[in-house]
Specification:
about 65% helix; mainly alpha; transmembrane; about 475 residues; two-stranded antiparallel sheet; solute:inorganic anion antiporter activity
Length: about 475
């Protein structure tokens, strides 16, 4: 959180496109896990090896920026960008599903619970669950919201909660409830209720409202049921520089190889997310600064590497959603179909600057009250991000066409220009590329995941060399066009 706050502040102040949001993404967490495994296998100091890998990554990123290699990203067509974007959305869904599966394995199918349930008949189990829910509701009504944290964990000197199958069922309901409330509020701007300004506020604040609501429900409404929460491991010295001289030349050379692969991931994701934020349909007025932003990312992560903080780069779908939140959107009707179009965007540094400052202040809220946020709430947040990120994704729209009657197809530009069979061929080829990304990006083998950036780069020759042999170039260009 400290690294994200510091890096976000620097990026908000000095970047060419401040609407881009910086985060530590899942691939970066994977690289950190791989580095930890290498250090354990070869008895290397993790903080030092991590720092050298980050420094090599920053070195290569600086080279990419100095030689204007971001121009290569122009070879990524819209269809390729949408494949990668949909892959990221799928990873959010899988993270939520995996987390919920672990909760069910621990609390619902755990062997330690069989003895608990063996002594109870099905009728008694149902009565026990009803009594538990009834007690929790009465406790929520009779207890002040200002109760101390100790009061949440104990009552009369002993723990007041119990871990059983109720935990798994409640976790599932909390996750789905968070998803429902956040997405409902996100779509509230389309409803006829309240003033348009209030609808816009509720839509923009859908995430914090849903997280706070269901966190309070878990902490107070069901305090007797133990929920899975994140552990907090504080560091004694947050700004401790790694001992760079403790590694051998061989280890430093190995870090260079990892840093090169890491720099390719940074290069692709940073430029790809920036391109999605700068998409023509967003109607941004201010110009782009891909190379300057890439150099700034290199400098920021160089400092984070030295202090052992997590790396950060442009995050999807947070950056496009940030642009969307600052946009003035209108609904228009064409041939009986309603679609949304962005009229203008409030291009400002204040939103990312304020968000980074608030992230820094959130360190003061650890461990309490941030630890009161249960994991199922965050899993619902992942599902919400995945669901909202598929808006305006043409790959998902074309995939939905397979299940629609041809008479109900929307009057998009590619439907008017491309035969239906060619559209379905193109969609099928995109699905195959998506499966290829999933095979490498979601492989259980960590070292196989490390070459994931190479697979993304390999999609360029697939688009320019292989696909034109199957579908005519004019149809490919029409489906890759913006309008």
């Amino acid at each position: 959180m400290a690294g994200q706050s510091i890096g976000g502040l620097l990026y908000a102040l000095f970047s060419g496109q401040p609407l881009v949001v910086l985060l530590t993404t899942a691939p970066l967490a994977l690289y950190t896990h791989v580095i930890r495994g290498i250090c354990d296998d070869y008895n290397l100091d993790f903080s030092t090896f991590y720092a050298w890998t980050g420094l090599w990554n920053s070195f290569f990123l600086a080279l990419y920026a100095f030689f204007n290699l971001s121009l290569i990203m122009s070879l990524f067509k819209r269809s390729t960008e949408e494949i990668i974007a949909l892959f990221i959305s799928i990873t959010f869904v899988l993270d939520a599903v995996k987390g919920m599966v672990k909760i069910f394995q621990k609390y619902y199918y755990s062997d330690s619970l069989w003895s608990y349930s063996a002594d109870r008949t099905p009728l008694k189990s149902l009565l026990g669950l009803g009594a538990s829910l009834n007690t929790s509701f009465h406790s929520a009504l009779n207890t002040s919201l200002l109760a101390s944290p100790q009061g949440l964990a104990s009552m009369s000197g002993h723990p007041s909660y119990h871990a059983s199958r109720e935990t798994a069922v409640l976790s599932l309901l909390i996750m789905l409830g968070t998803l429902w409330l956040s997405y409902t509020l996100y779509q509230f701007k389309k409803s006829p209720y309240l003033h348009p300004y209030m609808r816009e506020i509720l839509s923009d604040c859908a995430l914090p409202i849903s997280v706070l609501t269901f966190s309070l429900i878990c902490s107070y409404g069901f305090r007797e049921i133990k929920m899975s929460k994140f552990r907090y491991n504080p560091r004694e010295n947050l700004f401790k520089i790694a001992e760079m001289h403790s590694l051998s030349l061989k280890a430093i050379s190995s870090a260079m190889g990892l840093g090169f692969l890491l720099s390719m991931l940074f290069f692709i994701e940073q430029n790809l997310v920036a391109a999605l934020a700068n998409a023509p349909e967003n109607r941004l007025v201010k110009g782009t600064a891909y190379h300057w932003d890439l150099l700034l990312i290199a400098v920021i992560n160089m400092g984070l590497s030295l202090f052992g903080m997590p790396w950060i780069h442009a995050a999807y779908p947070h950056s496009p959603l940030h642009v969307r939140a600052l946009a003035h959107v209108e609904e228009r009707v064409e041939n009986g179909h309603i679609y949304e179009t962005i009229v203008n965007v409030k291009e400002t540094r204040l939103t990312t600057l304020g968000a980074s400052i608030l992230v820094g202040f959130s360190l003061l809220l650890l461990p309490v009250p941030l630890q009161w946020i249960p994991k199922p709430v965050l899993y619902g947040l992942f599902l919400y991000i995945a669901l909202t990120s598929i808006d305006a994704n043409q790959l998902f729209e074309r995939l939905a066409l397979l299940f629609k009657d041809q008479a109900s197809y929307p009057p998009t530009h590619y439907i008017r220009r491309v035969p239906q069979r060619k559209i379905h061929y193109f969609t099928g080829l995109q699905i195959l590329q998506l499966l290829l990304l999933c095979a490498f990006g979601m492989s259980p083998l960590p070292y196989m995941k490390m070459i994931f950036p190479l697979i993304m780069i390999a999609m360029i020759p697939i688009r320019y060399k292989l696909l034109p042999r199957i579908i005519e170039a004019k149809y490919l260009d029409a489906m890759d066009a913006e309008h």
